[in-house]
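Lab meeting minutes (informal)
Scribe: AK
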Amino acid sequence: MTSFLSEPYVALVLLGFLPSEIWRWLGIALGRGLDETSEIIQWVRAVATALVAGVVARIVLFPPGALAGVPLTVRLVAITCGFLAYYFARRSPFAGVLAGEAALIIGTLLFAR
């Protein structure tokens, strides 16, 4: 008989999903009446954007796992394609991610070691 927490999906829900989900719901409850144009919300948005940009830059410049086999030039072209698609598709994150991923896959197929 296995223990309750040894089940990988139960552990994933209890240790991965629920702790972050509590903070999301708390954020929704507390942020419900805030003005989106207030200085604090603009600051929070800027900090969140900077954190995401930092993580993306780290992954592109110091890639983990299989991404390390993709040449730096391909990774930089892919991120540029993603940004341009985002910008020209009226700031659509979906278009940016789709174009960046497509460029990464095509570049990997053509130029990977």
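Next up, CB showed the second protein from the same session:
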Amino acid sequence: MTASMRQLVAPAYLFLCLVLGGGAEGIWRNLILQLIALAIIAWAALERPIEPLPKPARQLGTLILLAVLLVILQLVPLPPAAWASLPGRDWLIGGYELLGQPPPWLPISLTPYETLSMLPWLLPPLALLAAMVRLKAYHPSWMVFAMLAGMTAGVLLGALQVSTGPDGQWYLYRIANFGSATGFFANKNHMATLLLVSIPFLAALMARARGGAVKPHRYYAAVAVAGGVLVLILVGLVLNRSLAGWGLALPVLIVSGLILTKGRGVAARIALGASAILAVAAVMVLFVEPVMERVASRAEVSVETRSEIFATSAEAAATFAPLGSGVGSFVQVYRLFEDPALVTRNYVNHAHNDYLELLVETGLPGLLLMLLFLLWWAKVAVDQWRGAADAYARAASIASATILAHSLVDYPLRTAALAALFAVTLALMVQPRATAGTARKSNVRNVRHIEIA
């Protein structure tokens, strides 16, 4: 395999994830992604690493192993006496007593088959981490182009979805947010996350183009193209109608502007002003058609519904503490705590807060592991902004922060597409700074004169 073909592996797979991995309902699409992921992981396991893994990458690998170990431990059968002593199992014990049977050996997870079925969903993000960190089968710019290509195709598909109405044939999933531009996703909030994550990487492309050996007319052409892509992103957010997307757009625009100014000086203040103007312009588009009253009413219902879900999920987390109910058990467990008088045809499939849902399913061990990851992420992100990291690493820190923030009110990492994209941001963050510098130098043409610094 040539070097160019090798560097296409991770970008091509990321694009496939964005197109095929937008919802859990697409079983065959996700199966294709998982089979390809297995091949990439096997390749990474058999091939010797090109260079030693940096310390942050080794730390991230340790956290991933601990997470997989936690899931496996939830599947280990326990003696009846030990299992019966776990909180929240009284109703099951009563069921065995009603049947006149003694409780058998059972695992911590109340839904072991669902817990086991969650493991294949880890394959796409793990494959991208392996391809980028271990195999170096990528180029940073190509990863960004693949992401922007998936985002652009999603916006165009979303425009078709909105133009043909909620009963149109352009939606890819049977259960989706009909009437909104969801693109290749089933959930409009997940499409909004992809749109937001594209903004800092677009700024990184501009920063790299300005700092590289690019002729002025080519740089201005790149600026024009980037401006067009930014307008496409903002239009996509308007068509998407995600309240979370609208709420996060302004801070993402502001922080992304710091990439162009290296985060300091007068240029930083100019970037902040420009980002604010763009955000105001995006909001003004919303007033073009009379949707604000409908948006306000939807927001009230959405917030009220989420508050009820949060309260019920918190009750479930307290009941099954300290070990949780098992990964993948949220849907079944949540029904135990619902008010029967409020049950309708609609059902709650997630807590709409990934941290709270993780607490329900994994208890105190999951909470500690989550805190360790957040501390690790914060340290790596701060180091990127304090040091001489390149624009892509800083964009990755903004993008991953956006996904983590959105996880407070939704579940973006439950889709293969956004889990893969999150893995890409982490891989870019853990690369050594020398790699960024080397990549920058490799784009500069060879010269025949001596350059004196």
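CB comment: The longest helix spans residues 354-386.
No objections, moving on.
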